[in-house]
Design brief:
Elements lengths: L1 H13 L24 H4 L10 E7 L3 H17 L1 E4 L2 E4 L4 E7 L1 H12 L3 H10 L3 H10 L1 H4 L9 H14 L4 H4 L6 E8 L5 E3 L2 H6 L9 H8 L9 E4 L11 H6 L10 H13 L7 E6 L9 H12 L1 H6 L7 E8 L17 H44 L4 H7 L4 E8 L6 H8 L9 H17 L1 H9 L7
Parallel strand pairs: 1-4, 1-9, 4-5, 9-10
Antiparallel strand pairs: 2-3, 5-6, 5-8, 7-8
Length: 473
């Protein structure tokens, strides 16, 4: 059924061919690291924010299922009360950064734009709307065809127009700079190289382009541009024309030969950055769904941790020295529908095999990524304890040892359907389709189960207690 639904959407959208002129991202002639949509500039300006805690949310892909599940997480964070410097606060006010992929990018960007307004409008404007049906209807409307014949725009540009009308209201990243909420980073995938490309000025510096004038709707359309079903979104690459200077960590990892540990991922990211800088031979970037490279949106977090570890100078550049605790809440709406293949003698058809052969590796990679993060958190915390113990053995007092070893802890909270205790309920959520339309009752179920899983999570409860609060009941 899932394969038939997606195939039907694909056939309808495929009737819309190549397109006319696309929006052009504007170039910049020089880079100003003190301006633009950059985490290290935005986060310190958040009102009443505890800078010693870096709170990151990661919203996975999965269409409306992912958007609703991540929205339920925001609702629970909004209900959870904590204390900062003895003053009552809500946990949601401590969120510094949200990464979003595909369906999760809509919730991330909408919250950054709407703030509190999200909780009164998001359901009606997006979650409980047949976005998929509206997109198909537009693609089949002959009055739209003349704008989408020939040229370099594609079906995703039509989708961006719809997202703009129903949700983003023409907002650009310059509008987000005027907001008080967390920074939201949507992610796409460079279809040529498989590299992750994120919508914040740091990555747009690589292609010498101005993110501030890019519409949020186009970022969301890029992050959710499922290959084949939707077209890649094309951006001009002006890389190599604005005097780009690599961050301090690059000088450290570039000294090593090959991909020497412990900075192998950072070195790989450096190589990817080099390809983005090659605007002469790569004048265009064709980006698709961010889930192709990272369906849970935490690959950038892992790479950043290596970059911070590789260079003390880089830690100073981004103001990381004040951070004592990193909380990463991974919201994974991974689904695994029962296809019934193993109960039939005949093998699955071509479309079913195609979907499964792409979906299974992504899901497996997502699982391994979360487990890697948990392992890394344990290692970081264990290494600090070991260093303190060594200083104590060398004669230092407990206070002296604690003062000499920087205390930076990493806590990973995983919110996923796998934690649902009831087998039938767990199966029902895992069988929800990856589409941009769900029945209203399923939206409400996703919101409710997100909050319930957080209240049942020992890891989340531990974070809340450490921040002076109690999980909502």
């Amino acid at each position: 059924m899932r394969a038939i639904r997606i195939l039907g959407w694909l056939l309808a959208l495929s009737m819309l061919g190549g397109c006319a002129s696309r929006p052009i991202n504007e170039p910049i002639t020089h880079i100003d690291p003190k301006t633009g949509y950059r985490p290290y500039l935005v986060i310190p300006k958040l009102k009443n924010n505890d800078l010693s805690t870096l709170f990151i949310l990661s919203f996975s892909g999965g269409g409306t299922r992912a958007a609703a599940f991540s929205y339920g997480v925001l609702e629970e964070l909004r209900r959870t009360e904590i204390a900062v410097d003895g003053k009552p606060r809500r946990m949601i006010d401590e969120v510094d950064l949200i990464t979003g992929v595909s369906g999760g990018s809509f919730t991330a960007l909408a919250y950054a734009l709407y703030g509190e307004r999200l909780f009164s409008e998001y359901e009606q404007r997006f979650l409980k709307r047949d976005v998929q049906g509206e997109l198909v209807a537009r693609s089949l409307n002959p009055f739209n065809w003349w704008r989408f014949v020939g040229g370099s725009a594609g079906r995703s540009e039509l989708a961006a127009e719809l997202y703009d009308e129903i949700l983003f209201e023409g907002a650009t990243y310059s509008d987000l700079l005027k907001k008080d909420g967390p920074i939201a980073i949507a992610t796409g995938t460079d279809i040529s190289t498989g590299s992750r490309f994120a919508f914040y000025q740091n990555d747009f510096d690589l292609i010498c382009s101005d993110l501030s004038k890019v519409r949020l709707s186009r970022a969301a359309a890029t992050s959710s541009a499922v290959p084949v079903v939707l077209s890649a979104v094309t951006y001009n690459n002006y890389g190599g024309t604005c005097g780009y200077q690599y961050p301090a960590w690059v000088a450290e990892v570039a000294k090593t030969e090959g991909r020497a540990r412990p900075s192998a991922r950072a070195f790989q990211r450096y190589l990817e950055m080099e390809t983005f800088q090659d605007g002469k031979d790569r004048p265009y970037l064709h980006l698709v769904d961010g889930g192709v490279s990272d369906n849970i949106g935490v690959r950038g977090v892992i790479e950043t941790m290596e970059e911070l570890g590789a260079s003390a100078k880089f830690r100073g550049e981004v103001g990381f020295g004040v951070v004592k605790r990193i909380v990463l809440l991974v919201v994974n709406s991974q689904a695994s529908p029962d296809n019934g293949w193993d109960r039939e003698e005949s093998p699955p058809g071509i479309i079913g095999q195609l979907l499964q052969s792409t979906g299974v590796p992504i899901d497996r990679y997502s699982f391994e990524t979360v487990e890697t993060l948990k392992d890394r958190a344990a290692i970081i915390n264990w290494r600090r304890e070991l260093l303190v113990a060594r200083l104590r053995l060398a004669g230092a007092s407990e206070a002296e040892a604690e003062a000499k070893v920087p205390k930076v802890t990493l806590e990973v909270v995983d919110v996923a359907f796998d934690a649902i205790l009831d087998p039938k309920e767990r199966e029902s959520f895992k069988n929800l389709p990856t589409s941009f339309v769900l029945p209203p009752e399923d939206i409400d179920r996703l919101r409710e189960v997100a909050g319930r899983l957080m209240r049942q999570s020992p890891d989340y409860q531990a974070v809340v207690h450490e921040m002076g609060g109690m999980p909502a009941k």
